[in-house]
Structures are given as structure tokens and as C-alpha cells.
Design a protein that fits this description.
Helix content: 25-40%
CATH topology of the largest domain: Rossmann fold
Largest sheet: 8 strands, mixed
Radius of gyration: 24 Å
Distance between the termini: 42 Å
Strand order of the largest sheet: 7-8-12-11-10-9-13-14
Length: 569
């Protein structure tokens, strides 16, 4: 046996004459390997949540094989580690998979704490998987590379390019208005998603892949390569080689890269792509695990100065495959380089500046010049006021300009069930200028903060051509959705936040230029309402939903568990 002095953490599991090391060696030998193939070599965990529950992840076995090939080439020892599926597209209720982000992060953390892993490749795709993997990487702080799974190929329907799920939201409104037949709906369903891969628009999955790259934890160009493009497999092989090199060098480690500068760069990229509102919560949760001070107000201040350059739905007109062919994130960094911290590190060994300098834009229509943006600045905003003391968010780039300064009469829905039962009730008197409010749908209230924030427009108004209204909730919406939808109101209603005190007929004022969201009710009246407020009865919870609702933080803190804060933060 070699010396008992380990240079890799995994060696302590296998070297020496002790009984435990004897058993561990036997476990690997039983798989058909020889001792020299794993003892003394970097033990690389390839974490993947492949399953048949999601189109997003169907190609992950093939990607993992490509990573393994690279690991073997570089002299490492790869082990594929499947984790729980997190599949937003099949989750019931829609978007409840957000609740499983923290669970997946915990699972990966415990795998790394328990087993002989020196380095990690984290293969993720669907909305919450990349955030979970980033959070886990920050907590365990082993050499780590995130490998995004990539978007699907462009959808085509009746001669038009269609993207998931932005065009689904748009056309479903036409369905509810009686303008699209059932046959057309079925035809669209078969045309919009045509391959493995996540949503083809700049939804949460695409956004988080872009942010993983801009944070430095994913390879340059990895966010936008289509899932089924052979170049993604070639990239996976390079990732396998690089993680061995990083592990042998002892880094850089995730918390070396996830600095204040990296988060500034990520927020800048978020604005330039007009990314998902969900990304704000993911960045807040990740920063909290990295001892980085980042608040909603910090994010808003950065976003005010960032023009949206990427012309991808729902803000623009193109799709992620088009973004890839235009140059992807490296080309975008080239456009933004004067606004970025160029010395920030990345897992490729290059700095952000070097990546930006070596890039070029292939299509100015998809990645716009700075003097011809898709949206001038502030694509996402943070709002504060007596209705959202700790903040709320709005994606202004996909909202109706005429509603960004608006006062309207409140119509309140107490739950998703209440909303579904009453939104199309012919006796309601909802008017286009009114404000629709859904409460008790936040992280603790639902629990799990499903994607209920895109409150449907009443069908009778849809039939009149109304396609947007001001909508407010303590919930979330899909990153592929659009409209004047105010989300993540904090504190949420179920913990006694002001959203719980709104009554039908109250007037609500939205003022995006001033970043205000206010209930036009006196402080004295709100105090009276608060004194008589009784939280709604909720169903009894068991298991993970109970743990989540008990320990989850509010949206302005990232909805992480309060016990997951990194020591020293």
C-alpha cells in the first residue's frame, strides 16, 4: 500500500491498513476496478438529476458519459451520482419544485460530506437545479464546475418560431378567450418543445445557466449551446479534464470565485438578458452562503444602469438557440466589458476580461449594441412601500408601459383555490384598471411559493381584448411569463405582512420610477386591521413541507433555510 499521508481528501478513505479503508477499497474493487485506478487519483463526483420526469434532463446520461471520458483522460476517477429529480414542467402544483431547491442543495452537501469526493461536476438544467447546485457548491467549497444542460431547439408552429413557455402563456390567453381551438392547442403542444433541453426562452433555467457562467462557475459558452448539439458533449469532455486539473491544484474553490465582484457581474448580466425574476431570489440565497452582502436594493441600483441587449423572449423576439449562434454569454461579456469586474476568476482558468476580449458578436439583432438596446435599463426592479416593506420585484421589460405608474381598486383572492373559483365568475365586477391581488401563496403560506403570481385575466375581459392588468402576490411566476406582475411581496401575508391587510375596494398605487408600491390606507387604519388579523387556517403539514415552512426565510433573503447560512456570515 502507498504512504498513509494523503494529498487528496479521498485518499484518507482508501489508504492505510485499517478495517474501514479495507472495506472501502473492496467496495470499489467489486465494481471491476484495480487499486491503482482510484487510490491516489482525484475522485470526481459527477452529480446529475437525470430522470424520465423531465424533458430538461433526458440527455444527462450522455453528458455524464462525456464528462467521465474527460476525467479518465486527465487521470481522475469519475463516479456518476444521481440525485433527486427536480422537474418544474411536471410538478403539481406548477412551480412547487422551487421548494425542492433547498432539498437538492442539502442532498448534494450531504453526499459530499459523506463520500470520498475531491471535486464536483454538477449537471443541471431545469429551473431550480442550477441554483441548488451553486448553493451546494458554495457550502461544501470543493473544486466544482457547473455544466448546464442547455436549451431545447427552437419550436416551430405554422411557419412561426415559438418558444416555451412564453408562447404557451400568450396562446393560452387566446384559448380562454375562445380564439384558439382544441385542435390548434394540441398541435402547438407537439410543436413548441421539440427536443431534450430546458425552455427555449430566457426563463429561469436559461437565466440561471447564464448567471452560472457569469459568476465564473460554468465554462465560457456553456449556457446557450442547445442540449442536443454535439458541441455540448465536447464541452462536457473538456469540463471533465478541467475538474481534474482544478482538483489537483486545490482550486480555485467556489468561494474564491463567488466574490462581491462576481455577484456584481452576475447582476449586470441579469439586467442585460432581462432574465427571470426568480434569479433575484437565487442570487440572494447564494450570496448568503458566500458571506457576500447583497440586498434587493443593491440589485436594483445595479440594474438601473444596465441596458437589456439580448433580444430573447419574453422581453425580445428570438430564442436561446439564436443567442448561442450570436455568440452567447462570451459575446455579451464583450459588449459589457467596460461595466464588469474583468479580474473575476472563472473555472476555465481565464478571467472575465480574457473571455470578453476573445469573444465576438455574430448577430447584432440578437445581441444588440450598447447604443441600440432592447430595453434602456432597469429591466427588473425592486419595489418598496407600505405594501412591501421588505421589497417586491417586477420585470418591467415585459410589463405594459402604461401600467408602470398606476392606481387601481384592489380585488383580493385568499388562495389559489379562491382565485380559480372566482376569477371568471360572471357576477364579479373586475374592471381593466383594477388591481388583482393573490395572497397566502408565499414561501410559508403555500407552502413552497408556486408559480401562481401570473393571475389570469378574467375571461370576459380577455374576450374584450384586455391582455394585461396590474397583479400583485407574495408568490412567484415562471421566468417565461410576462405582464405587469408584482411578485415576492415581503413579508408575505401568512406571517402578517401588509398584503394580509388589504381589503376589496382599497386603492393600490404602483410607481415604478419611484420604486414604490403602496396601499392607500392610513397607518392608523392598517394598525386597527393588524390588531384583528387572524392568520388563515392552513392544512396540516408533515415531512419535508413542514420542515420547509418552518425554517424557510422570506423572499428578500432568498428563501433559503435559516440554518443553511455559511459559518461566519
Amino acid at each position: 500500500m502507498p504512504s498513509d499521508s494523503p494529498s487528496l481528501s479521498s485518499e484518507s478513505h482508501f489508504r492505510g491498513g485499517g478495517f474501514d479503508a479495507f472495506l472501502r477499497r473492496g467496495s470499489i474493487l467489486a465494481q471491476g476496478f484495480e487499486t491503482e485506478e482510484f487510490v491516489g487519483r482525484p475522485f470526481i463526483g459527477i452529480v446529475s438529476n437525470w430522470s424520465e420526469l423531465s424533458r430538461c434532463h433526458g440527455h444527462f446520461r450522455e453528458l455524464a458519459d462525456s464528462v467521465k471520458r474527460g476525467v479518465w483522460q486527465a487521470g481522475g476517477f469519475p463516479r456518476e451520482i444521481p440525485t433527486m429529480p427536480v422537474a418544474a414542467d411536471l410538478a403539481i402544483p406548477t412551480g412547487i419544485s422551487f421548494m425542492h431547491r433547498n432539498l437538492l442543495a442539502m442532498e448534494i452537501e450531504e453526499i459530499c460530506r459523506t463520500y470520498p469526493i475531491d471535486g464536483l461536476v454538477l449537471i443541471g438544467s431545469c429551473d431550480e437545479t442550477i441554483p441548488a447546485m451553486l448553493m451546494a457548491a458554495a457550502s461544501v467549497n470543493l473544486p466544482s464546475i457547473v455544466l448546464p444542460g442547455g436549451p431545447g431547439i427552437n419550436g416551430r408552429w405554422r411557419g412561426c418560431t415559438v418558444g416555451s413557455s412564453t408562447d404557451c402563456h400568450r396562446i393560452f390567453a387566446d384559448i380562454r378567450a375562445g380564439q384558439v381551438s382544441q385542435e390548434e392547442e394540441l398541435e402547438l403542444s407537439a410543436s413548441i418543445d421539440r427536443s431534450y433541453g430546458h425552455c427555449t426562452t430566457m426563463g429561469t433555467a436559461s437565466t440561471m445557466a447564464c448567471l452560472a457562467e457569469s459568476l465564473g462557475l460554468a465554462f465560457p459558452g456553456s449556457a446557450a449551446i442547445p442540449a442536443v448539439d454535439s458541441r455540448r458533449r465536447a464541452l462536457a469532455q473538456r469540463v471533465g479534464r478541467q475538474i481534474v486539473s482544478m482538483t489537483e491544484a486545490g482550486g480555485p474553490l467556489p468561494r474564491d470565485m463567488l466574490s462581491d465582484k462576481a455577484f456584481y457581474n452576475a447582476v449586470t448580466v441579469l439586467g442585460s438578458i432581462a432574465g427571470s425574476t426568480n434569479a433575484i431570489m437565487h442570487l440572494l440565497a447564494l450570496a448568503r452562503r458566500c458571506n457576500v452582502s447583497l440586498t434587493l436594493k443593491d440589485i436594483d441600483l445595479v440594474l438601473r444602469e444596465v441596458p437589456t441587449l439580448v433580444d430573447v423572449k419574453p422581453t425580445g423576439s428570438a430564442l436561446m438557440e439564436d443567442f448561442f449562434f450570436a455568440g452567447g454569454i462570451p459575446a455579451l461579456l464583450g459588449r459589457l466589458k467596460d461595466s464588469l469586474h474583468g479580474d473575476a476568476l472563472t473555472v476555465s482558468g481565464q478571467t472575465i476580461q480574457q473571455i470578453a476580449d476573445n469573444s465576438g458578436v455574430s448577430d447584432d439583432r440578437v445581441i444588440r449594441p450598447l447604443d441600440d438596446p432592447v430595453y434602456p435599463g432597469g429591466a427588473l426592479v425592486a419595489l418598496f412601500g407600505n405594501l412591501a416593506p421588505d421589497g417586491a420585484v417586477l420585470k418591467t421589460s415585459s410589463a405594459s408601459p402604461g401600467l408602470l405608474t398606476h392606481t387601481g381598486r384592489a380585488h383580493v383572492f385568499e388562495s389559489r383555490q379562491d382565485l380559480d373559483s372566482r376569477i371568471d365568475d360572471p357576477v364579479n365586477d373586475i374592471q381593466p384598471e383594477d388591481v388583482l391581488i393573490l395572497r397566502n401563496a408565499g414561501p410559508k403560506g403555500a407552502p413552497g411559493m408556486p408559480e401562481w403570481g401570473t393571475i389570469p385575466i378574467p375571461a370576459r375581459l380577455l374576450r374584450k381584448g384586455i391582455r394585461d392588468m396590474v397583479r400583485i402576490s407574495d408568490s412567484r411566476m415562471s421566468g417565461t411569463a410576462f405582464g405587469t406582475v408584482i411578485l415576492h411581496v415581503s413579508p408575505e401575508a401568512v406571517v402578517g405582512g401588509p398584503l394580509a391587510l388589504v381589503e376589496n375596494g382599497d386603492h393600490v398605487a404602483l410607481d415604478v420610477p419611484r420604486r414604490r408600491l403602496d396601499l392607500q390606507v392610513s397607518a392608523e387604519e392598517l394598525a386597527v386591521r393588524k390588531s384583528r388579523y387572524v392568520p388563515p387556517r392552513t392544512r396540516e403539514l408533515t415531512g419535508y413541507p413542514l420542515l420547509f415552512s418552518r425554517y424557510v426565510t422570506q423572499a428578500n433573503e432568498g428563501c433559503d433555510f435559516d440554518f443553511s447560512r455559511h459559518e461566519g456570515c
